[in-house]
Amino acid sequence: MRVLGVDPGLTRCGVGVVEGIAGRPLTMLGVGVVRTPADVDLSHRLLAVEQGIEEWLDEHRPEFVAVERVFSQHNVRTVMGTAQASAVAMLCAARRGIPVALHTPSEVKAAVTGTGRADKAQVGAMVTRLLRLSAPPRPADAADALALAICHIWRAPAQNRLQQAVARHTLNATKGRTA
């Protein structure tokens, strides 16, 4: 499974591609950040994020895109920019027919470090270890993007089984039977 992880942001949008399957060693195929200048009009910043993500999609051809689910923050301006960058990533994937998965920050932290309360340094250290890198990816947005991809690779099989079970139950219930 090849996953593009996207840590959305307007100034720095982390991107990272990881390949592998749950229970096996994972391989980093690329990591980086799509940057936009803060003094540029919002529409042009979103366009730059789109162009950057499209380049990553062209180069790495992921099967899935994992995006950090936007959560409420105290700074409304920051959360709006994050949500807009997140929507751009989802739009780019949808345009190509690539499935998108949303993972909360605490889900990603728990998947990678074992605790949903891990800090950025702990996430970076575990990403480094899991991908057998010589140093943590910088900036932290890049490490977070890789963590998103890892989280999706590890969680997708269980999520797929759950969705299939729900679908079977729903189908049986509509036929007058229960699963």
From TrEMBL:
Subunit relationships: Homodimer which binds Holliday junction (HJ) DNA. The HJ becomes 2-fold symmetrical on binding to RuvC with unstacked arms; it has a different conformation from HJ DNA in complex with RuvA. In the full resolvosome a probable DNA-RuvA(4)-RuvB(12)-RuvC(2) complex forms which resolves the HJ.
Species: Streptomyces alanosinicus
Function: The RuvA-RuvB-RuvC complex processes Holliday junction (HJ) DNA during genetic recombination and DNA repair. Endonuclease that resolves HJ intermediates. Cleaves cruciform DNA by making single-stranded nicks across the HJ at symmetrical positions within the homologous arms, yielding a 5'-phosphate and a 3'-hydroxyl group; requires a central core of homology in the junction. The consensus cleavage sequence is 5'-(A/T)TT(C/G)-3'. Cleavage occurs on the 3'-side of the TT dinucleotide at the point of strand exchange.
Superkingdom to which the source organism belongs: Bacteria
Active site residues per record: 7, 68, 141
Catalytic activity, as annotated: Endonucleolytic cleavage at a junction such as a reciprocal single-stranded crossover between two homologous DNA duplexes (Holliday junction)
UniProt cross-references to CDD domains, sorted A to Z: RuvC (cd16962)
Name of the molecule in the record: Crossover junction endodeoxyribonuclease RuvC
NCBIfam families tied to this protein: ruvC (TIGR00228)
Signal peptide: none
Binding-site residues, Mg(2+) 1: 7, 141
Obligatory cofactor(s): Mg(2+)
Keywords of the record: Cytoplasm, DNA damage, DNA recombination, DNA repair, DNA-binding, Endonuclease, Hydrolase, Magnesium, Metal-binding, Nuclease
Entry binding sites for Mg(2+) 2: 68
Subcellular location: Cytoplasm
GO terms (BP aspect): DNA recombination; DNA repair
GO cellular component annotations of the record: cytoplasm; Holliday junction resolvase complex
Note describing how the cofactor binds: Binds 2 Mg(2+) ion per subunit.
